[in-house]
Amino acid sequence: MGETIISWATHTWTPVTGCSKVDKECQRCYAETLSLRRGWSKVPWTVANEAANVILHPDRMRHPMSYPAGSRVFVTSMGDIFHKEVPDAYLHQCFAMMNACKHHRFMVLTKRPERMADWPGPWAPHIWAGTTVGHRGDAALQRLEDLRRTPAAIRFVSAEPLLEDLGDIDLTGIHQVLVGGESGAGYRPMNMRWARSLRDRCVAAGSAFFMKQDASFVTERRPYLVEENGDCFEWKQWPDDLRAPVKVPPASAAYHREHFPMYKAAGV
Questions:
Q1: How far, CA to CA in Å, does 4 sit from each of 34, 124, 165, 218?
Q2: What single string gives the DSSP state of each residue in 166-232?
Q3: How buried is residue 246: exposed, middle or buried, by Cβ count under 10 Å (0-12/13-18/19+)?
Q4: Which candidate, 33, 78, 219, 256, has a CA 20 to 30 Å from the CA of 26?
Q5: Average model confidence (pLDDT) across the chain
Q6: Is this structure's pTM higher than 0.70?
Q7: pLDDT tens-place string over residues 37-54
Q8: Distance between CA 65 and CA 257 in Å, rounded?
Q9: How many angstroms separate the Cα of 220 from the Cα of each of 11, 213, 261?
């Protein structure tokens, strides 16, 4: 783990790997698919198998100390640091490391914000709290409420995979929304109208809007918002940088090879 092609992060840090599915956003979990394919997990990520699948990696605890200053670190991209199989004592160690690395930004993304909301931290300003809200089901909307209770300076929502229009979702107390369609085999399509609706809600609320990708077999494909008239705009806002969107050409294969070297390497 280390450098990543995920556009909103520069590095990943995985002191915990493995998880168990909690909602329909998890149906085609990329982390489960990759873990089973490469043998990191032996059995599917069900609740019944969680004790076998959630693994602590204390040998990775100090990895962030080797990352360049100013790194944006996605915490547990291949698991969930707030899973109940992660002991409090170990979680305290993870937070101690994050608090020691004030020269980074740690983006802690979980599907279990009910535990995160009650976690004492300490939540230094460079440790951000996030959760996934990709549909309007009761569980997803409750995660949003739990995120609001989390005593972090910055709270963000990952609407990935975005599975439906979130409508009049309340973004009070939410500082950033990351939007992305599902990727991988059997991906569920995303309607750009859903993404535009979230963009409009962010603009109205003064929250940062970050358009990560459209739904596609390949991750980070079509990393822009498509307006009703077909114009394409790159939205890469942060809570402290509400930069204006940039108009871009529709992403042909040539565009991806130029802007995303990993596609060139993969021959995409």
A1: 15, 24, 29, 15
A2: --S---TT--EEEEE--BSTTPPP--HHHHHHHHHHHHHHT-EEEEEE-SBSSTT-S-SEEPTTS-E
A3: exposed
A4: 256
A5: 92
A6: yes
A7: 999 999 999 999 999 999
A8: 32
A9: 15, 5, 12
